[in-house]
Automatic annotation (TrEMBL):
GO cellular component, as recorded: plasma membrane
Coarse class of the protein's main subcellular location: membrane
Molecular function per GO: antiporter activity
Membrane topology label: Multi-pass membrane protein
Organism: [Bacteroides] pectinophilus ATCC 43243
Domain Na+/H+ antiporter NhaC-like C-terminal: from-to ranges: 156-449
InterPro entries xrefs: Na/H_antiport_NhaC, Na/H_Antiport_NhaC-like_C, NhaC_Na-H+_Antiporter
This protein's name: Na+/H+ antiporter NhaC-like C-terminal domain-containing protein
Subcellular location(s) of the protein: Cell membrane
UniProt keyword Transmembrane, yes or no: yes
Amino acid sequence: MKKEASLLQAVIVLGGFLAMAFACNQFGIEIHLAIFAAWFLAMALGKFNGHSYSDMEKSITGGIYDGMSAILILLAVGALVGTWISGGIVPSLIYYGLNVIHPAVFLPAALILCGITSLATGTSWGTVGTAGIAMMGIGSAMGVPAPVTAGAVLSGAYFGDKLSPLSDSCVLSAAMADIDVIDHVRGIMPVSLTAFAITGIAFTIFGLSIGESSADLTQVEYVMNALAENFNISLFAFIPMIIVIILLILRLPSLPVITFGSVLGIIWGIAFQGLHPVTAISTAWTQLEMNTGVNFIDSLLGRGGMESMLWSAAIIILGLGFGGLLDRIGIIKAIADRLYGFINNGGTLTVFTIIVGFLGCLLGSAMYVSLVLTPKIMAARYDGMGYSRRVLSRNAEIGGTLTAGMIPWSDNGIYMSAILGVAAFEYLPYMWLSFTCIIIAVIFGFTGWFMWDNSNDVRMSSKNSPNAEMEI
């Protein structure tokens, strides 16, 4: 006879999982193994409570089945980023951004440039590793404190990442909340746009207070020259980005639109960068390697391709399976029942969701851990109170993604600190977009603004095929 999981059992399973995740992070072991090992910890509990192995295995494959569209889109995104870099699209975007930077407006310019780059590519990591590196060098030449520059870079990178349907965290948040990725973008847009405007004003005022540096723009010219020497910079590079954005706005299916964008990247690589057709096509799978002696260019050229997304795809597969298993053996219900007693309105619902998301990053050492667990734990409460899953995915991502870079031992914290050369605790006070998003989301929760009901929700799991498109 099957028994319901108790709160103690839930704590043991999740505590064991989080402990393994923390240990993996400390010893440099991939987080994937912690999630995979947690499958068997959860199955041991399920077996103890009377669940059959067959049922638990079906729950794992069922969870993965429901999220397969996210995996397909993620691979297409990898191809897009790879071909857009080698095709000169992303380099041109950065080049023209650098062309308009002036010391007096450097901080808001860094915010906007990183925001646009991240929005176009769908990756905060890639943005920080490319445009972000350039901004750190430029800021240093202009006499801007490194932690302040890092704050502007991260604010822009996370802003674009959260609004881009190309983002892996965006896709994962939508998949775990069981909604369309564009519905997720629509849900988070009011918070992100408002926060971006406030953050932009704050960095503008702060930048003016620092004053114009007497330093010349040698660093800016150095980066621009390096880009121009290694790419054929052209305004035509904006055409593929404009086409893809328009097609997405027209609500065409994500997978073919993104794939078409990568085809345009291949064409641009052949036509404007002089790549051999075979080489241009191969960048859809793995990016070109180049040793120019210029770190910025080498970093820029080394990113993208489907191969670069296999890490994220694997963790999404494992996470989806773990979520399905936790749901089957009653772990989600046991935790949710305890939390739900403290939630009586949209404001407390938002606060607890963000807290759960933050704790997932804090204890699990990875953004993906939070994005997997938070929607699973909180979904039933949103449904019961009549709120749209768009609100759930928004709050889960704010709690799980925008706080990840604040934690020194998380995947984001480690990466951002290493790339920018600034410790997490040093740039933390300047992550103004993250703090502003949290405050605005809580305000929306208590006021009821943009807290949609679930009358028009369309669940992705209702699709008939695992290959079904995310309709936009």
